Amino acid sequence: MKLGELAARLGCTLEGDAHIEIHGVAGIEAAGPGEVTFLSNPRYTRTIATTRASAVLVDDKVVIKRSPELPTLAALRSENPYLDFARTIEFFHFPQTYLPGIHPTAVVANSARIGEGSHIGPCCFVDEGVEIGRNAVLHSLVTIYKNAHIGDDFLAHSQTVVREGCRIGNRVILQNGVVIGGDGFGFAKRADGSWHKIQQQAPVVIEDDVEIQANSCIDRATVGETRIRRGAKIDDLVVVGHGCDVGEDTILCGQVGLAGSTRVGNRCILAGQVGSAGHLEIGNGAIITSQSGMHLDVPPGAVRSGTPVMENKLWLKVIAALKRLPEIQKTVRELTGEMARLKAGKK
After folding, report:
1. CATH fold for the domain made of 101-313
2. Would you name the residues annotated as active-site residues?
């Protein structure tokens, strides 16, 4: 593909030779001739001078400065270089395709309905009353329990499980080992201190365009439902407890844990290892930074950090003060001793 064609397809402004042949993409430090790279993180700005890529996706603020011995570097000016780099990858790397059909080792119940163009891989199990839409792909060892309903263009990687009665929309991707609809963690304490299991009967509902990555668990509810709304993205090793509601286009990063009945608004970001107590509400557009522990509701648009969670700006001051704690402690001891001497002198 010519660089000029690539610029046109991306809607970027080209600064450089439109006739350069482009055959792939790479990171800015590893890219070579014929490859496109990108710059979105300022910490890599210095590598503009040395990258061997033929072109770089940058915003309007970046100044292209090159080492004299290296070839000229073309610039593709973009409002969102990272997004356009992601789009560029799709021009050179195509997703794997799968032939329609059911593998001889798969077990599919007679009452299950499988949509046109679907691929059911080796050793899959599809139980009674299941409905799966068009062009679904189930890799090996995927298990779909009774009466689950799944939409079109579903992609389930190996060893994923969709439990009984759960409902999944269109264009949903489940990475390896995801469990949709496992029992919520619900137990009532008896008088003797033992635990009585609370039946978890209500389904999980996954809306359209959701992706859930490896070994994450979305638990079913006791009553009502657990719902993951349109466009949400859930990283590896995330636990969404029973009865939770995760909003549209929200991101839950690795090892996030939501206790039961937590409600997360639209377009929120919960960074890695964020934990939430149950029955909390996180407003639209809120950002919770890594390793924060939430014990209170979070208002819309807020940025919160720390354990217990607090305003991000306050948390930054607390952390700055924490580094000086030994020095502060020494000063307090000295001042306390001085005050004691002054009081003794007055007596």
Report:
1. UDP N-Acetylglucosamine Acyltransferase; domain 1 (2.160.10)
2. 242
